[in-house]
Amino acid sequence: MKNQIETYTKITPTADIKIEPFDVNKRYTRPHRHTKYLELVYFRKGSGFHYMDQQSYAIEPPIIFLIKKDEVHHWKIDTVPEGFVILIKQDFLDSTLDKNINLQLQQLSFQQKIEIQTDVTIDSLFEILCNEMEGKRAGLNEVVEGALKALLAKIIGYANMEGTSNMGDTLSRFDGLLGKELKNKVSHYAALLNTTAQNLNSLCKGRYSKTASQVIAVQMVKEAKRLLRFTDLSVTEIAYKFAFKDVSHFVKYYKRYEGETPMQFKKRQ
Hints:
Elements: E1 17-21, E2 37-45, E3 48-52, E4 55-58, E5 63-67, E6 73-77, E7 82-89, H1 90-95, H2 100-107, E8 113-115, H3 120-135, H4 140-161, H5 169-180, H6 186-192, H7 197-208, H8 212-230, H9 235-241, H10 247-258, H11 262-268
Antiparallel strand pairs: 1-7, 2-5, 2-7, 3-4, 3-6, 5-8
Helix pairs in contact: 2-4, 3-4, 6-7, 8-11, 9-10
GO molecular function: DNA-binding transcription factor activity; sequence-specific DNA binding
Domain HTH araC/xylS-type: 168-268
InterPro entries: AraC-bd, Homeodomain-like_sf, HTH-like, HTH_AraC, RmlC-like_jellyroll
């Protein structure tokens, strides 16, 4: 019986960051998630599809994908790909000498794909990062952080061209909390953020045109779908996982946002 989604780890326990060319042997993968790190994938050649949760995205280079911790994804790549992969653990962000890198990643936290133009600077920065990681020379951290900061700045520039704006600090932390645990209580998150439920609600309405409870619901329903689709957990087990005391409340909650029950969704898969 499969009670959890497959988890892949592509970085050693002692490493905080990994930067390397995309592995051409990973053209077809099973649905899986990464629980230890953020993954940024850049394709400058290749074709096929990238599946993230319920969405499928055509691989049309040059393009960048961001796979957040716990997102379920897999690849179906038709032609030999060419590109780079960056894996970033929280430990790297906690110890980085340049805290602007944290802010840059927060600005990208709601992005899944970013279409970019052919840009020799982006290619060069990825190549510099790969060379520095391979060489392990003195001053490695400073060089890697400098090149990574420059690369993220370029990516943010393209994301902003698609209409992305900076997130406020409170909403960035709210997003981080939703990635760690899911509870259907705005007051729970407001307390952790040292704000009021009313203020959190106001911020969410201003940024997303949704109430805080609706923002929570989007993430909760998304995770419920992952568990329904990729594990053998029952609806009851999923309800308790999200701290619902009564499974019927969870079923009504899910149906309110999806128009069908969790079991109806599961039967369609």
